[in-house]
UniProtKB/TrEMBL annotation:
Homology family: Belongs to the TsaE family.
Protein name per its UniProtKB record: tRNA threonylcarbamoyladenosine biosynthesis protein TsaE
Keywords, comma-separated and alphabetical: ATP-binding, Cytoplasm, Magnesium, Metal-binding, Nucleotide-binding, tRNA processing
UniProt-listed InterPro entries: P-loop_NTPase, T6A_TsaE
Organism annotation: Desulfosporosinus acidiphilus (strain DSM 22704 / JCM 16185 / SJ4)
Length: 167
C-alpha cells in the first residue's frame, strides 16, 4: 500500500506532473483521477497525454463520456482512453458504455469521476486524488494497493525534485 503526496502551485505544474507520469506509464495501466470540479483532473490528463506523445488537443469527454487518442509508449503505438463518468447516474451504466472493454494491454486508461464505476475498475490501478480548487495550490496524492506502482511513483517524485519541482 503506497501513498505519496506532492504539491502543484499552478495549472502548468499540474500538467508537468502529468507529463512526467505519462512518460512512466506502461501498456495496460489504469489511472483513476479523483477530485472536485475544477481541481485539475483534465490538466493532469493533458500532461499525461503529452508524456505519451498524443498530438492535438485533449479535452474532457464530459458529454461524450469517452475520448480516444493515439500515443506512444515504449516505442509502440498505444491507445490513450480518457473517460469522464461524471454524467453517469448508476454503476450499471459503466458496464453499458463498455468501461471494462478499455482495460486492455494496448491501452492506457484515464478515468475522471471513477467512483460510480468502482466495481468495474481493476484492483491494479493508480488512484490520483487532487485536492484544492480556484487559485489554491493543489495537493496531488498518488495511491495504489499494488507494489508495482511504488517504484514508478518514487522515480517520478525523485526526477521532479532534481528538476526543481516542489515536493
Amino acid at each position: 500500500m503506497m501513498d505519496c503526496k506532492v504539491t502543484s502551485e499552478t495549472v502548468e505544474q499540474t500538467r508537468n506532473w502529468g507529463k512526467c507520469l505519462g512518460e512512466r506509464l506502461l501498456p495496460g495501466d489504469v489511472l483513476a483521477l479523483i477530485g472536485d470540479l475544477g481541481a485539475g483532473k483534465t490538466a493532469l490528463a493533458q500532461g499525461i497525454g503529452e508524456g505519451l506523445g498524443v498530438t492535438g488537443p485533449m479535452t474532457s469527454p464530459t458529454f461524450t463520456l469517452i475520448h480516444e487518442y493515439e500515443g506512444q509508449c515504449q516505442g509502440k503505438k498505444i491507445r490513450l482512453v480518457h473517460m469522464d463518468l461524471y454524467r453517469l447516474q448508476h454503476p450499471q451504466e459503466a458496464e453499458v458504455i463498455g468501461v471494462e472493454e478499455s482495460f486492455t494491454e494496448d491501452a492506457i486508461c484515464l478515468i475522471e469521476w471513477p467512483e460510480i464505476a468502482e466495481d468495474y475498475l481493476p484492483e491494479n490501478r493508480l488512484d490520483i486524488k487532487i485536492l484544492g480548487s480556484g487559485e489554491q495550490p493543489r495537493e496531488i496524492i498518488f495511491h495504489s494497493a499494488e507494489n508495482d506502482w511504488e517504484q514508478r511513483i518514487m522515480d517520478l517524485i525523485y526526477s521532479r525534485e532534481k528538476l526543481g519541482g516542489s515536493q
